[in-house]
Amino acid sequence: MNAPLRSDPAAPADPTSIDADGRAVAPAQLRPMSLADLDPVLSIEQQAYSFPWSRGNFVDSLAAGYLAEVLVGEGRAGEGPPILGYHIALPGVDELHLLNLTVDPSCQGRGHARRLLDAVERHAVQRGLASIWLEVRVSNQRARRVYARRGFAEVGLRKAYYPAPHGSREDAVVMSLVVSGGLRAVD
Question: Which residue, of 63, 100, 107, 148, has the fewest CB within 10 Å?
Answer without folding.
Answer: 63
